[in-house]
Amino acid sequence: xxxxxxxxxxxxxxxxxxxxxxxxxxxxxxxxxxxxxxxxxxxxxxxxxxxxxxxxxxxxxxxxxxxxxxxxxxxxxxxxxxxxxxxxxxxxxxxxxxxxxxxxxxxxxxxxxxxxxxxxxxxxxxxxxxxxxxxxxxxxxxxxxxxxxxxxxxxxxxxxxxxxxxxxxxxxxxxxxxxxxxxxxxxxxxxxxxxxxxxxxxxxxxxxxxxxxxxxxxxxxxxxxxxxxxxxxxxxxxxxxxxxxxxxxxxxxxxxxxxxxxxxxxxxxxxxxxxxxxxxxxxxxxxxxxxxxxxxxxxxxxxxxxxxxxxxxxxxxxxxxxxxxxxxxxxxxxxxxxxxxxxxxxxxxxxxxxxxxxxxxxxxxxxxxxxxxxxxxxxxxxxxxxxxxxxxxxxx
Length: 396
Ligand SMILES: Nc1ncnc2c1ncn2[C@@H]1O[C@H](COP(=O)(O)OP(=O)(O)O)[C@@H](O)[C@H]1O
Ligand SMILES: [Mg+2]
Known about the structure:
Blueprint: H1 2-14, E1 22-23, E2 29-30, E3 52-53, E4 117-119, E5 125-134, E6 139-145, E7 157-163, H2 168-179, H3 182-191, E8 202-208, E9 213-219, E10 221-224, H4 225-231, H5 238-257, E11 260-261, E12 270-273, E13 280-282, E14 289-290, E15 310-311, H6 317-320, H7 327-343, H8 355-366, H9 369-376, H10 387-390
Antiparallel strand pairs: 1-2, 3-15, 4-5, 5-6, 6-7, 7-9, 8-9, 10-12, 11-14, 12-13
Bound molecules: adenosine-5'-diphosphate (ADP) and magnesium ion.
């Protein structure tokens, strides 16, 4: 936690906004006013319904940032999560986040029958099993390498399918093709002495059928953490939250080093491995953004047309302002998730329908972390490891 929060803080201090910082007239440097606040919420791109407001993840063609934000490397693996996730005693509280539906703009792929064989762009054949779900933009099927056998419930792969004229799988696919090839992940895992890395592996992709439905083959996972969170009265134990934080820092270090930021970290995008439920994986790269193409970091620009992108309760202050997703934002989002997992509810969750309220609450608390900690953990309920963030420097 301290690694996460200190990373988050340090990055905040670095304030990418520095390019647009201005003197506030008191001798200090103030953040520029957010052009999104007080203005009508506008969305660009797919605009997923529910609490998630998605942006068009932007054109492809952005690149590496050499500098590593995070360092987690050789941390010992936890023996928890899934059936071992340590949860708090059940209490009635809080509603599940709004379900996500496919926006009207995007057609869902037609059903493919079980047993259908798909050939990827490398001419490898894959056989479909039963559908296992439907995301905002595509259908998911169990799958295996093609053989005479039927694809059973234990299949090791999942195929995500959607019509080829849809944007989201295309940009997600770009991420997987650039950064999630099995040999890249394997190399990183061994060089960083990790037991595993929570980035799903990409196994292939192609177009299938007359109308060219785009598909992508990836690892198959099990339950998502949001379900476990709801089943556990919306609380995870301190140990679970810290372990999740460490594993996610491993993931963020990897994807940040490979030119990308995720932009939508949350429990419903964290899936447990279906065979090894002590392992957690970050999925859904539909909003992932290549923040530094060819080593040139994307410029800090506040674009009112893309304010509040991401999932409203967790999205970063930058995203609220319509700035492209950043490494700093990923850490901030992770920080909000961890606080929610610890205390059950973020202070702005009562008014998620008002993005300007959510944005200004986050901005206010970011200037006063001790008051965020006090609000989330009133009285003596505060975990000891949050002490450094609750500590107020003596005045004068
Ligand atoms: N590789 C996978 N294996 C098993 N289930 C998956 C996999 N990928 C996604 N899912 C399930 O589908 C849901 C939606 O997938 P996701 O990639 O997050 O798409 P969306 O953009 O709709 O959120 C996830 O929350 C998870 O329950
Ligand atoms: Mg998702």
